[in-house]
Amino acid sequence: MDYNEIIAGNLKRIRTQNNLSLEGAAKLSGVSKSMIAQIEKGGVNPTISLIYKLAEGFRIPLSELIENPSEPVAIVRKKEAVLTEKDGGSFRDFMIMPYDSSRRFESHLLELDSSGYVKSDTLRKDSSAVLTVYRGRLAIHLGEQRHELSPGDTISFRAGLPSSLENRGKKPCRMGMVISY
């Protein structure tokens, strides 16, 4: 299946699930109803900016439009997870379970080396996160507030706040984070 087919199927499914006509979808997204119809038929190769407009209009993550629909059961091994490193590799973000519309969340395994500090990306405004510390001591800065967490501690927070993570221990800190949309 090529990307145009994936996008076409996802767009039609999302529009139908939300009981939207082509006209209603056009009003929400600012994309013309004729363009939406062409995309749904697989007749055009939509630009990323056009797909982004649709995602913003429907208030969904971009990945919901461009990824293959998920299977009922999904297993992702750590070695298969998408790894993003920051701060010279002292912070590792393994996307264990990418976002999928049937689950409406994504899951990350985070590792921060001893005495490490990393500024986090601001989450989308319509999302929230739950972070659990598995190993190590963590200070999480959310806006002007600072919270100290130990193994087994969990914090939940809404998006939109500038945030950073600081390992307060002498050993690497390992955390799990689930982001819901």
For the structure shown, list the relevant keywords.
alpha+beta, 434 Repressor (Amino-terminal Domain), Jelly Rolls, four-stranded antiparallel β-sheet, 10 strands
Explain this structure:
- The protein is of the alpha+beta class and 181 residues long.
- It has two domains: 64 residues, Orthogonal Bundle (434 Repressor (Amino-terminal Domain)), CATH 1.10.260.40; 103 residues, Jelly Rolls (Sandwich), CATH 2.60.120.
- Strands 1-2-3-10-5-8 form a six-stranded antiparallel β-sheet, with no helix packed on it.
- β2 and β3 form a beta hairpin.
- The protein is elongated.
Distance between the termini: 27 Å
Report the strand count.
10
- Evaluate the radius of gyration: 19 Å
How many helical elements?
5
Helix content: 25-40%
CATH homologous superfamily grouping of the largest domain: Jelly Rolls
Number of structurally distinct domains:
2
Strand order of the largest sheet: 1-2-3-10-5-8
Mean pLDDT: 88
Per CATH, what is the topology of the largest domain? Jelly Rolls
* H/E series: HHHHHEEEEEEEEEE
Specify the structural class.
Answer: alpha+beta
CATH class group of the largest domain: Mainly Beta
